[in-house]
Write a structure and sequence with these properties.
The chain is of the alpha/beta class and 436 residues long. It has 2 domains: 169 residues, Glutaconate Coenzyme A-transferase; 242 residues, Acetyl-CoA hydrolase/transferase C-terminal domain (Glutaconate Coenzyme A-transferase), CATH 3.40.1080. It is built from 15 helices and 24 strands. Helix 7 crosses helix 8, helix 8 packs parallel to helix 9 and helix 14 runs antiparallel to helix 15. The longest helix has 11 residues. The N and C termini lie far apart (71 Å).
């Protein structure tokens, strides 16, 4: 193995210049050694802009070491739990994007100067896996002025189908290594009774052999738990983020991928995020998985070539036309759209496919009042994440509304039927006054 590119993180961090855009990646994968080394250059460089997203580890050093933003500013494609805390301190700037668009953004529209790419230990030929975050790293590597590989000894070493999840040391300008913290994990709250009611309604819509795309959250995880105890069989996985929900299905013998029109026998994914047990499953069974980049996994045309694609995601609000806010409370960004639109469209194109947005009909506000999550119209300042034209099925604890092909008035009537009973009368009044 050519060791000439191996340097210390501090040496590699010297590649960053004032005014540069630096990419950290997305999800549970994170270049922690390079982050620490770059943070140590506070005061030496200025106007360095760092891009990341969906960070689940508890700290980004360039942000925490420089809250005055003397040297560094942080930008996120998708607000994660930790980034939400940064947001309350005014330390993150949000970049809206549909994930399938990211590769083209990097190819044609935005600049990346330095890429900090987290990779697994190389094999004897110098090939590394992209660990738990394929993201769009291979596109970014082609565009960046300087590429730094950070070898994380804790990453699973799978390299994907025909090298779909691998890079070679020759593609890096610098390679760094060192001791890493345990991989960041993500767990979810215990399912509520409302989650179980919604999940039971969605479960009825899933046929044998369905290909599942599960978002991360209470209802998708509850659906997986219920499937594990059901009579369903030969389910498949084609999803943006593979999670413990799929491990649950696999351990129950439900996840065989035997009916998929392509990637038969394989779970297809772009990110991996969950427990250490999930990461171990990925690492110990590389032959079960096809990790690939956003161009492959999130392409709605490719998704639509499979039969019975079932996409299940959560939301924040829906209005009577079917417009969905999946990511904000007014102008405050809560998360991001991620791949939700990609899989909604893929499911719509799929023969027998169904895209579900699952939401509690109402919520209890901080002042103790009950507020409807189905509203007459998305409030000013809030995001319309999914247009009414892409919302196919909406599920609450009161039922499932199928909106495809309905008029505005019919959509409103369908949404009112699954709204909380306390709000149906005022929603009906709005519908009568505003929809023919």
């Amino acid at each position: 193995m050519d060791r000439s590119k191996f340097v210390t993180p501090e040496q590699a961090a010297r590649a960053v210049q004032s005014g540069d855009w630096v990419d950290y990646g997305f999800g549970a994968g994170f270049p922690e050694l390079m982050d620490r080394a770059l943070a140590a250059r506070k005061g030496e460089v200025h106007d360095v802009k760092i891009r990341g997203g969906l960070v689940i580890r508890p700290r980004i050093e360039v942000v925490e070491s420089d809250p005055e933003r003397e040297s560094f500013s942080y930008y996120s494609w998708h607000i994660g739990d930790y980034e939400r805390k940064l947001q309350s301190r005014g330390l993150v700037k949000f970049l809206p994007v549909i994930l399938r668009s990211l590769p083209e953004l990097y190819r044609r529209h935005i600049r990346v100067d330095v890429a900090f790419v987290p990779v697994s230990k190389p094999d004897a030929q110098g090939y590394c896996g992209l660990g738990i975050s394929n993201y769009t790293w291979r596109t970014i590597i082609e565009s960046a002025r300087t590429v730094v590989f950070e070898i994380n000894e804790r990453y699973p070493t799978l390299q994907g189908v025909d090298g779909s999840h691998r890079v070679h040391l020759s593609q890096a300008d610098y390679v760094v290594e060192g001791e890493h913290e345990p991989l960041p994990t993500r767990s979810y709250k215990e399912a509520t009774e409302l989650d179980r009611q919604i999940a039971s309604l969605v479960l009825r819509e899933i046929p044998d052999g369905a290909v599942l795309s599960l978002g991360v959250g209470g209802v998708p995880f509850t659906v997986a738990s219920m499937i594990a105890q059901s009579d369903l069989k030969d389910l498949g996985c084609h999803t943006g983020t593979i999670s413990d929900a799929f491990l649950t299905l696999y351990e129950a013998g439900k996840l065989t991928n035997a009916s998929k029109e392509f990637d038969r026998g394989l779970c297809t994914w772009n990110l991996c995020m969950g427990s250490q047990e999930l990461y171990d499953w990925i690492g110990e069974n590389p032959g079960l998985f096809h990790p690939d980049d956003l161009d492959y996994v999130h392409d709605p045309y490719r998704i639509g070539t499979m039969r019975n694609v079932i996409s299940i995601n959560g939301g924040v609000q829906l209005d009577l036309m079917g417009q969905e806010n999946a990511e904000s409370a007014g102008t405050r960004q809560l998360s991001g759209i991620g791949g939700q639109l990609d899989f909604l469209e893929g499911a719509f194109r799929s023969p027998g496919g169904k895209g579900f947005i699952c939401i509690h009909a109402a919520r209890t506000a901080k002042d103790g009042t009950l507020q409807s999550n189905i509203v007459p119209c998305i409030p000013a300042g809030s995001t319309v994440s999914a247009p009414r034209t892409m919302t196919q099925y909406v599920a609450t604890e009161y039922g499932v509304a199928r909106l495809t092909g309905l008029t505005l008035r019919e959509r409103a009537e369908a949404m009112i039927q699954i709204a909380h009973p306390a709000f149906r009368e005022e929603l009906a009044r709005y519908a009568r006054e505003n929809f023919q």
